[in-house]
Amino acid sequence: MLLEQLINGLTLGSIYAIVALGFTLVFGVLGIINMAHGEIFMVGAFVGVMTTGVLGWPLWLAFIASIVVTGILGYLLERMTLRPLRGKKGVSHLAPLISTIGVSILLENLSHHIFGAGNKPFRTEFAEISIEIGSVSIYIVQIVIFVISIVLMIGLSVWLSKTKAGKALRATAENLETASILGVNTKKIITLTVIIASAMGGIAGILVGMAFNSVSPQMGLAIGLKGLAIIILGGMGNVKGAMVGGLILGLSETFLVAYGDSGYRDAIAFIMIIFILLLRPQGIFGSKIAEGR
Amino acid sequence: MKVLRKASLFFSVLMLLLLTACSGESTGNEGSTTEQTDEKISAKFGVISYLTGAGAAYGEAITQGLKLAQSEINENGEVNIELVIEDSAGEAEQALSASQKLMSDDSTLAIIGPTLSTEFFAVAPEADLNGITIMGTSTTAEGIPEIGDYVFRNAIPEALAIPTAMEKAIERTGAKKVAMIYGNDDVLTQSGFDTMKKTAEEMGLEILTIETFQKGQSDYNAQLTKIKNTNPDLILASALYNEGAVIMDQARKMGIEVPFVGGNGFNSPQVIEIAGDAANGLIVATPWFGESDEQKVVEFNEKYEAAYGKRPDQFAAQAYDALYIYADALKRAGEADRELFHEALAETKDFEGLLGNFSFDEIGDVVMDVKVVEIKDGKFIEFE
Question: Which range marks the domain in which residue A234 is found?
Answer without folding.
Answer: 2-290
